[in-house]
Structures are given as C-alpha cells and as structure tokens.
Design brief:
Number of strands: 8
Strand order of the largest sheet: 1-2-8-4-5
CATH superfamily of the domain at 23-101: tricorn interacting facor f3 domain
Structural class: mainly beta
Order of helices and strands: EEEEEEEEH
CATH architecture of the domain at 23-101: Sandwich
Length: about 120
C-alpha cells in the first residue's frame, strides 16, 4: 500500500479588506480540503484577532460555526482558530476582525500559500 502524505489546508478564492472603527475586517472565501479538523490555522506575524465568524456553504443551507477560542503560538508564528465542532471539507467564508493591523501582508500567506 502506498503511504502518501495527505494534503490538507485552505485554498483562497476571494478576499476583501476594509476598515471599521479602529479595526480592520478581513473577509476570506475559499475551499477547505483534507481531513476534518476543529481549527483553522493562520501563518505569519501576530494578528490581534478580536472576533471570527465562520460560515460553511452546505448543499442547501449556510451553517455558522461557533468559535471556542483563538490562540497565538509565537514559536510557530501561527494564529489558531478553534471551533466546537468538526470543520468538514467544502466552501467556507471567514470574517476576521483584526485590531490595529496596518499591514497584514499577502492574504495567501496567512494560510501558508505562496501568491
């Protein structure tokens, strides 16, 4: 049996950045693939994420996930968004409110992708 590494992650299809009363709102649409997990991982410098809204476009309805906690791991340079239930592969929309982020950089690099 061929043991190959399973590919998992998030492929960004669209992103939009806007300012709102001292915070920046980053809206990201994309497709999640790989094994189901309970988190999204953002790569890069520390982002002071105030809140996150995660919506999954199911076959016939939109499902909104509850975010349990947001962790920052300085040694890995990751911000992890943990949910209470499993996130299955499919189309997702994330709306992040980020406090005091003047230069987020490339949105593709947030999910470990090269532009």
């Amino acid at each position: 049996m061929d043991q190959t590494k399973r590919r998992s992650g998030f492929e960004i299809t669209a992103s939009e950045l806007s300012a709102e009363a001292g915070t920046q709102v980053l809206k990201i649409s994309g497709k999640r693939f790989g094994q189901p997990t309970k988190r999204f991982t953002l790569h890069g410098p520390k982002l002071d994420v105030v809140s996150v809204k995660i919506t999954h476009a199911n076959k016939n309805k939109l499902v909104e996930y509850q975010v349990d906690r947001i962790n920052y791991l300085p040694t890995r340079g990751q911000t992890r968004i943990h949910c209470s239930s499993l996130l299955y592969p499919g189309n997702y929309e994330l709306v992040l409110k980020i406090k005091g982020a003047d230069d987020i950089g490339s949105v593709d690099k947030l999910f470990g992708q090269e532009p």
